[in-house]
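Q: I'm writing up a methods section and want to include an example of the input and output format. Could you take the sequence below and give the corresponding predicted structure tokens, formatted cleanly so I can copy it straight into the document?
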Amino acid sequence: MADAGEQLRCSACSNRFRDPKLLPCLHTFCCQCLDEAVEPANGEASLIVKCPSCDAESSLPRGGVSGLPTNLFISNLIQVVAFQDSPRINCNLCMEGSPAAARCSDCLAFLCEFCEQAHRRQRKTASHRILSVDEVKKDASESPKRFRSPSVCSSHPGEALGLFCDSCDQLICRDCTLIDHRQHRYSSVADASARHVAMLTRLIGQARTQVVGIREGLRQIEDMSQRLSDCAASVAVEICDVVDAVVTTLQEHKRSLLGDLSKIQQEKLSVLNCQKDLLQKAVDDAETSCRFAADTLREGGDIEVLSMKGPLTNRLQELVNSSLPCEPQTDDYIRFFPSDLVSVFECEEGLGVVEGSGTDPTKCKVDGDSPVIQAKQRKTNVITVVARDHLGEQRMKGGDKVDAVLQSRSGCSVQCSVADCEDGTYSLSYVPEEAGEYRLIVTINNHPIEGSPFFVHVLARRKRHTGSWQCCTFCSTGGKKDVACGCHAVMPGGYRGCGHGYPPHPGRKHWSCCGSVIYRSECNAE
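A: Here is the clean output for your methods example:
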């Protein structure tokens, strides 16, 4: 209870909470403070409320801010503090308003001495646990959840909220089960609390694991920022060395180059800082939500936990399922490409170019969308590789180290020729001697490009016919006896070739080299 003062203070008005309302982001504010934060949704008739702490926007229920769930944990804590600060507590049972001497932990009612004695004598309440006011104050100081205020049903005044409807996910009373929640699944507050506390505890663990990943992302961003600064400093030295070599004449070029360098560095740092701010905000929100949920489970009673079970579950599940860009959104690539110093004076090209983006092999692609590359046997086959930077933009200059090799299933390799087109594209050419299936491995700067290795299907080269397209050998040769035919038919009379009507003549035109009766076909002669 040492920090109860801060827990009970609304961060919007800096006063003690009045009618504390819980937002989906798990931040709590006075109902009146949230009324001032309500604004219309963009292009819609509905209203939204923006959290004064984290700026998260939430749609309001039908009842407006009043319809938001009450933070029963804070409300109970306010009553605990009020009870401890109050010099006198009146009896809740008798009409005389006598000072309370004790409190029944089962009925949650303060009792004067007379009512305490009657409470102990009645058979129905004789087994109840009754503590003196001093004992109650001590218990409340050690653990606020031991001091629970009666929670009554808003639909049935006077009826205690002792049940939890699993179908509607809300606290109900006994009368609710007979009217609005007939045939619904419900259980006692104690049973439902035990079940949902375990689930919420598991979600807290998962959310904290998510925070660990985000912190690692922040560490990587800090490291990348430092590496970027170190690299920028190194390039700045290189630029200064080149510029100082030509002294006063090149001072204007020097300022231009350093300006370009600073712009690139600032643009990249801006990206990293924006990402850093986003992740830091995510960590702060996640830790606040986890701390709030853990405090609720630790300090709140069953009713308080169940009353906030919905917002807690939604917020924690949202944290668990959140997907944030933890990898740095830019790199530390900054390069300086100096020009020929002689040309600087002759054609005013400047000292060179500062480049802030290099080739990223994982973004480079082979031209074409087909997953299988078709090639021809014993023919020169050419494919184009397109170099891209880390943003996926095509490079406008060459100079990369590109290697490619074609491997057959038997392990034989065919080295590919690489031509730099100097416009960010590279032509790869290769001549496979054998037909079949191959793998094409393409690397840029010793790293495989996207999709490598590629599947290459080499089509066999069609064998041409060497004979003549004929009706028979006798007709096509003018009656020569020493010419054979691929159909293997032999005409009597000392002929080696075929003639009409002498089997196995096919009975129609065919190729003399192999006997095939199909004009456009591959020769299968041995």
